[in-house]
Write a structure and sequence with these properties.
By secondary structure, the chain is of the alpha+beta class. Helices cover 18% and strands 37% of the residues. The N and C termini lie far apart (36 Å).
Length: 279
């Protein structure tokens, strides 16, 4: 069961992509290992429609375990931010532990950042940058220029799936093996504005913000769906402007262990930090 308590007053989180830079510091990446080589592709009735329906298949599945990886480059360096946890696709809530690489965390080791994902809000603990260790930061994701596709250092798994509702120019590349599961490999681009219009009401506001804030109108993706149409892996390539520079981000979400219970308990009012977050 997912325990939820809404209506908490908002702390003063960042409302711009500057929060991303504050979270990751000096960034960089290790390339992700890809799936096994695809076999000769077999025709499918409508690849675009198949990909657009992946979010509905996840809602039907209920919940899943999730691992995330976000590769970002800035200042001539590249690092990878990794996360692990679970997500409930019916309640649109999730919990991730996000780990910064040593180079981005600074000289001293940084504790994992706990992130609670809820409709319209992101809660972060161990956020650093002047936030007391026992406090949470609350960010309204509908005010972020990327709709929390990038800011938290991990793409919200629900948003990652809902973004595929804007899929177009999709090509089916064949069947491949992903951790022992046969999946179909699809490649295309997601139209941000179209995805925002078609998304579930809980995530529509965040995706609409992303449609306004990203440097391009479309997001290239590689999606891997199992025989039940459930999204098993998706890799998005985002592009946004930060202080006059275009930043490229590759975000990968892996889903497995469908049906696993996801525990999400929102912080009490007194535990939400109301001060200003340092850049």
């Amino acid at each position: 069961m997912v325990e939820q308590r809404y209506g908490r007053p908002r702390g003063h989180g960042s409302g711009s992509l500057a929060a991303t830079a504050a979270l990751v510091g000096s960034l960089g990446a290790t390339a992700l290992a890809g799936c096994a080589a695809s076999v000769d592709p077999k025709p499918v009735p409508d690849p675009a429609r198949t990909v657009r329906n992946a979010a509905d298949a996840l809602t039907k599945a209920g919940s899943a375990k999730a691992t995330t990886s976000m590769e970002m480059a800035t200042g001539g360096t590249r690092v990878t931010i990794r996360g692990e946890g679970g997500y409930d696709f019916r309640r649109r809530t999730g919990r991730l532990q996000v780990v910064l690489p040593h180079a981005a965390a600074g000289a001293s080791e940084h504790r994992p950042i706990t992130e609670l994902l809820t409709p319209g809000a992101l809660y972060m603990k161990n956020r650093g940058a002047g936030v007391p260790a026992d406090k949470w930061v609350r960010v309204d994701t509908t005010t972020l220029e990327d709709g929390n596709l990038v800011t938290g250092g991990a793409t919200d798994p629900g948003a990652a799936a809902e973004l595929l509702r804007g899929a177009q120019d999709v090509t089916y590349l064949g069947e491949t093996d992903l951790a022992g599961v046969k999946v179909g490999h699809y490649r295309g681009v997601a139209d941000l504005a179209r995805a925002a219009r078609a998304a579930s009401p809980h995530l529509r506001g965040a995706l609409a913000a992303a449609a306004r804030g990203f440097a391009t109108d479309t997001v290239p993706f590689d999606a891997y769906l199992d025989a039940e149409g459930r999204l098993r892996k998706v890799r998005h390539q985002f592009s946004f402007s930060n202080q006059g520079r275009t930043v490229a981000v590759a975000s990968t979400t892996l889903l497995y262990g469908f049906g696993t219970a996801v525990e999400v308990t929102l912080p009490d009012r007194r535990d939400i930090y109301a001060g200003k977050i340092k850049a």
